[in-house]
Specification:
By secondary structure, the chain is an alpha/beta fold. The protein is built from six helices and 13 strands. Strands 2-1-3-6-12-13 form a six-stranded mixed sheet, with helices on both faces. A four-stranded antiparallel sheet has the order 8-9-7-10. A three-stranded antiparallel sheet has the order 4-5-11, covered by helices on one side. Strand 12 and strand 13 form a beta hairpin.
Length: 225
């Protein structure tokens, strides 16, 4: 319960940073959920914004709470994005993708003037890597990519649904959850993965987050990159 309270506190703190007239990137996940709900409340109270969701699930949630939506085709520049993270280190390098939306999340973050991370205190780590790194791949390349990732010292595992079938992203791709252990050089690993054919995107977010709002007990802490 305390974990949920921290998530809600962080999500709501992120929503307060949105200003009238903003184009807002709407993140995906359990903490971003609270930010979207809080933004919906502000829209109902008169806030004028338009949102760009990072997943079908978030789009459905935003519509439920009355947030007008747009697309990157209409608005390729985003004022602020509020999104969660599975891990964040002191430099605000992130692991994302636990919810399966890493590709769209990274596109939206890269198009944003400011990316704000909202998270509970358990997501802050000294070194990335305890959480398995999600890597989105095309199914055609799965075996080849698995071998290349294994050669880097990781244990890749295909993400599956409860019925055992492969999890499929909103983009029609599969995800490998790759256990690297401690990632001593996230930028170097990010470059290797980005240059590997068959990998569509990976969950290392380097140099994108400018601010993190961390729920910790009864307060919200700010961490700047």
């Amino acid at each position: 319960m305390a974990n949920e309270e921290e998530k809600e506190a962080a999500g709501r703190a992120g929503a307060k940073l949105v200003r009238d007239g903003d184009v807002v990137g709407l993140g995906t996940g359990s903490t971003a959920y609270f930010a979207v709900v809080a933004l919906g409340e502000r829209v109902k109270a008169g806030l004028k914004i338009i949102g760009i969701p990072t997943s079908v699930k978030t789009a459905d949630l935003a519509r439920q709470f009355g947030i007008p939506l747009t697309t990157l085709d209409e608005h390729p520049e985003i004022d602020i994005t509020i999104d969660g993270a599975d891990e964040a280190d002191p430099q605000l390098r992130l692991i994302k993708g636990g919810g399966g939306a890493l590709l769209r999340e990274k596109v939206v973050a890269s198009a944003s003037r400011k990316m704000v991370v909202v998270a509970d205190s358990g997501k802050i780590v000294p070194v990335l890597g305890k959480f398995p790194l999600p890597v989105e791949i095309i199914s055609f390349a799965r075996t080849v990519v698995e071998k290349k990732i294994a050669a880097l010292g990781a244990s890749p595992k295909l993400r599956t649904k409860p019925d055992g079938s492969p999890f499929i992203t909103d983009n029609g791709n599969q995800i490998l959850d790759c256990s690297f252990g401690k990632i001593d050089d996230p930028p170097a690993l990010a470059l290797i993965l980005s240059n590997t054919p068959g990998i569509v995107e990976h969950g290392l977010f380097i140099g994108l987050a400018k601010l993190a709002l961390i729920g910790r007990g009864g307060r919200v802490e700010e961490v700047h990159s």
